[in-house]
Protein backbone atom coordinates (compact mmCIF):
# COMPACT_ATOMS: atom_id res chain seq x y z
CA UNK A 1 0.00 0.00 0.00
CA UNK A 2 1.40 3.37 -0.99
CA UNK A 3 1.48 6.49 1.15
CA UNK A 4 -1.23 9.08 0.58
CA UNK A 5 -0.55 12.26 -1.38
CA UNK A 6 -0.48 15.58 0.41
CA UNK A 7 -2.01 18.35 -1.70
CA UNK A 8 -3.12 21.85 -0.83
CA UNK A 9 -6.53 23.28 -1.72
CA UNK A 10 -7.11 26.94 -0.90
CA UNK A 11 -4.23 26.74 1.56
CA UNK A 12 -5.41 23.66 3.46
CA UNK A 13 -3.37 20.44 3.40
CA UNK A 14 -5.33 17.33 2.44
CA UNK A 15 -4.39 13.66 2.32
CA UNK A 16 -5.63 11.81 -0.76
CA UNK A 17 -5.03 8.39 -2.32
CA UNK A 18 -2.22 8.19 -4.87
CA UNK A 19 -4.72 7.86 -7.75
CA UNK A 20 -6.70 11.02 -6.87
CA UNK A 21 -7.52 13.74 -9.35
CA UNK A 22 -8.25 17.45 -8.92
CA UNK A 23 -12.00 16.85 -8.55
CA UNK A 24 -11.41 14.39 -5.70
CA UNK A 25 -9.34 17.02 -3.89
CA UNK A 26 -12.05 19.65 -4.32
CA UNK A 27 -14.71 17.16 -3.18
CA UNK A 28 -12.75 16.41 0.00
CA UNK A 29 -12.11 20.10 0.65
CA UNK A 30 -15.74 21.20 0.16
CA UNK A 31 -18.48 19.21 -1.62
CA UNK A 32 -20.31 22.47 -2.36
CA UNK A 33 -17.39 23.65 -4.45
CA UNK A 34 -17.60 20.46 -6.48
CA UNK A 35 -21.17 21.40 -7.39
CA UNK A 36 -20.00 24.90 -8.34
CA UNK A 37 -17.36 23.40 -10.66
CA UNK A 38 -19.98 21.25 -12.35
CA UNK A 39 -22.31 24.26 -12.71
CA UNK A 40 -19.56 26.34 -14.30
CA UNK A 41 -19.56 28.95 -11.54
CA UNK A 42 -16.10 27.94 -10.30
CA UNK A 43 -12.81 26.73 -11.72
CA UNK A 44 -9.51 25.41 -10.37
CA UNK A 45 -6.04 26.87 -10.84
CA UNK A 46 -2.63 25.47 -10.04
CA UNK A 47 0.08 27.15 -7.99
CA UNK A 48 0.96 29.36 -10.97
CA UNK A 49 -2.63 30.54 -11.45
CA UNK A 50 -3.21 28.48 -14.59
CA UNK A 51 -6.54 26.70 -14.97
CA UNK A 52 -6.46 22.95 -14.58
CA UNK A 53 -8.95 20.37 -15.72
CA UNK A 54 -10.76 18.69 -12.80
CA UNK A 55 -9.85 15.28 -14.26
CA UNK A 56 -6.10 16.00 -14.00
CA UNK A 57 -4.19 13.47 -11.91
CA UNK A 58 -2.53 14.90 -8.83
CA UNK A 59 1.08 14.74 -7.72
CA UNK A 60 2.21 15.11 -4.13
CA UNK A 61 2.62 18.73 -3.07
CA UNK A 62 0.18 20.08 -5.68
CA UNK A 63 -1.18 23.53 -4.88
CA UNK A 64 -4.74 24.18 -6.03
CA UNK A 65 -7.04 27.12 -5.66
CA UNK A 66 -10.77 27.01 -6.34
CA UNK A 67 -11.96 30.30 -7.80
CA UNK A 68 -15.63 31.23 -7.64
CA UNK A 69 -16.96 33.32 -10.49
CA UNK A 70 -20.25 35.07 -11.05
CA UNK A 71 -19.86 34.21 -14.74
CA UNK A 72 -20.46 30.76 -16.15
CA UNK A 73 -17.81 28.96 -18.14
CA UNK A 74 -17.93 29.60 -21.89
CA UNK A 75 -20.19 27.17 -23.73
CA UNK A 76 -18.87 27.83 -27.20
CA UNK A 77 -21.98 29.83 -28.14
CA UNK A 78 -21.86 33.58 -28.63
CA UNK A 79 -25.18 35.09 -27.57
CA UNK A 80 -24.37 38.32 -29.44
CA UNK A 81 -23.59 36.65 -32.78
**How much helix, percentage-wise, in residues?**
10-25%
CATH architecture: Roll
Q: What is the tally of helical segments?
A: 2
Order of helices and strands: EEHHEEE
Q: Total domains, how many?
A: 1
Biggest sheet, in brief? 5 strands, mixed
Shape: globular
CATH topology: Ubiquitin-like (UB roll)
Structure description:
- The protein is an alpha+beta fold and 81 residues long.
- The protein is built from two helices and five strands; from the N terminus they run ββααβββ.
- The chain has helices at residues 22-29, 31-39; strands spanning 5-9, 12-16, 42-45, 51-52, 63-68.
- α1 packs across α2 (31-39).
- The longest helix has 9 residues, at 31-39.
- The relative contact order is 0.25.
Amino acid sequence: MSAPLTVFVNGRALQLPESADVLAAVRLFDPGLEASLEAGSAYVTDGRGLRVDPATALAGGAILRVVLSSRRAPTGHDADA
